[in-house]
Design goal:
The protein has two helices and no strands. By secondary structure, it is an all-alpha fold. The relative contact order is 0.05.
């Protein structure tokens, strides 16, 4: 019990010394960024965005291809972009007791 009390007292003393040292130091804070400067206001732009059309199509380059080509394309020699999916593993049905 005496050892524990001594360790707690030493901890409090160490904290007190640390706090005293922090208060005694001359703290100077450096400014990390330069102060903000006002920038000139940009002139209003007369360019308006293009008018959006409902149902419009987005151009894609290159054209998208299906991950699995249809059977005719496979017969012609097209290879699928993805490997075949693994077979599902199923267990025997649970028997009632």
């Amino acid at each position: 019990m005496l050892l524990a009390s001594t360790m707690v007292a030493a901890g409090f003393a160490l904290c007190g010394l640390s706090l005293a040292q922090l208060q005694a130091e001359n703290q100077q804070v450096a400014q990390a960024t330069q102060p903000l400067q006002t920038s000139p206001t940009p002139a209003p732009q007369s360019n308006e965005p293009a008018e959006s059309k409902p149902g419009g199509e987005r151009p894609t380059t290159p054209a998208p291809e299906p991950a699995r080509p249809d059977t005719q394309a496979q017969k012609a020699g097209a290879t699928p972009a993805l490997p075949p999916a693994p077979a599902e593993k199923t267990a025997a049905p649970i028997k009632d007791r």
